[in-house]
Structures are given as C-alpha cells and as structure tokens.
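This part of the workshop introduces the protein records we will be handling. A record pairs a protein's sequence with a compact description of its fold. As an example, a complete record with its sequence and its structure tokens follows.

_____
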Amino acid sequence: MTMPPGDPNHYGYQPPPPPPYGAHSPYPPPYGMPGPGYGRFDPYTGEPLSEKSKLVAGLLQILVPLGIGRMYIGDIGMGIAQLVVTLVTCGLGSLWPFIDGILILVNGARDEHGLKLRD
C-alpha cells in the first residue's frame, strides 16, 4: 500500500511490516539491516560506527609514519600522498602522518563509507 498524500498519520496508512528475521529489507534501519556499520552504534548519537578502530589507525600513523593508518581506514589517496611526501623529503615529511595520527586519536576520523571510527 502506498502512503496517501499529506499527513503520514492519515487514516488508513499502515507502515510496512518488518521483514522476517535475518532478511534484508529495502527500508531504512528501523526495518532494514544496518549498512556497513555492522550493528555497532554510537551510544550518544545513535550513529552507526565503522568496523575500523580509531586506536589502531592512530597508532599506525604514529608508529609507522608512512600513511599506513590512512590506508587502513580506507583513505587511500591521503595515505599515498603522505607516503610520497615522506619519501620525497627523505623522512622530514613524516611529521605530517605523525601529527595526523595524534589528530585521529584525539578527534577521530571517518572511514571510506563516512562512518565514525569506533573507540
């Protein structure tokens, strides 16, 4: 049944039934399965979280300052740029991924799907 025009609480409107347990649905998350967040949600905002860890990404950026942490979270372009800058400047450019790693640990980042990294 399609939704009648006007108020969604209009007489006669019935929300779609939920799908059988475990089945995927074309509807958004109250009835559908969550996307790439894999069922983890931020307890404060309810926003889905990535399967990637903020701690792992930040430590990779700090301990291996070649853009590996950015590549881990799926930001391949930024990771390759950090790698090239570090190699071209004979290691002086490793300050960029080092500071970026600290910022990832403090502020967090988003993965390639735009989801917040989990703690």
About this structure: Residues 54-118 form one domain. Helices lie at 54-63, 68-72, 76-88, 95-107.
